[in-house]
Amino acid sequence: xxxxxxxxxxxxxxxxSVRIKSRTLPQTVLLEGGxxxxxxxxxxxxxxxxxxxxxxxxxxxxxxxxIKCKANSHPDIQVYTPEKKGASFKVELCREIRQDAFVLPxxxxxxxxxxxxxxxxxESSENALLKILEEPPNGVYFILTCDSRAAMLPTxxxxxxxxxxxxxxxxxxENTVQIACALANAAADGNELAILRESAPLEKAREEIRQVLxxxxxxxxxxxxxxxxxxxxxxxxKETVQTLAKKLTKQKxxxxxxxxxxxxxxxxxxxxxxxxxxxxxxRLRQATEN
Length: 290
Ligand SMILES: [Zn+2]
What we know:
The protein is α/β, with parallel strands linked by helices. The chain has helices spanning 10-21, 36-51, 64-70, 91-100, 123-134, 154-157, 174-188, 192-199, 208-227, 238-247, 250-268, 273-287, and strands at 28-33, 77-80, 111-115, 140-146, 161-165. The chain has 12 helices and 5 strands.
């Protein structure tokens, strides 16, 4: 198995392999999308590459560290999975990880924490973890995995380098991106009429509402990241993200993100589509008010 066997974009495969080779992998990586099995395998592959002591391609598969990885018994790699699907990581566990991260590694110079299904974290757990993600000790790495970055707190997202796995999760359609960008721009101007106008196509395409909301969420999260000087990996809505970052304060972008999260929750509870659209206009407008 090598990095090139995973469904990554060419750019991302290259990025990861160059950073592994030069031992400059970002300390927090978020693997998003693909299937659970793919995310799990890639997380372990990256963890092995971090602790591998080989000189050439890492993981070399032959050094003592790699042999322990293959046996799932490397003492400096910890893998955490929520107890059951969709369950939350407990805040105590996140605090424990935070403390443990300051303990020196057993074997080599590196420690890796793999947190699978991290979209299942609640806000207090994410906040507990955030403290360590902000300033991880030297040699400590975090590999988080999730279905979609839209479910992560923007504060956590802004600390992580997101690597999307292609494949099973389909990207947003061109139409979805177009509507979401128009809505984001209208919200940035605080123009309620424009928000109404841009959301009009959704009256006839109700099944699109949730997709548009998820896309909006990504746009706002990316704008927050842009504000924090992070690298951006998605280019389909790059211009909109830059406009938002230029026009709005961090607090307002965050308020927009929160409003969108609430709307997604309503959409998932099968709220009435007309009410949903009305509340979309209202909430997006309200988020940018002083
Ligand atoms: Zn090795």
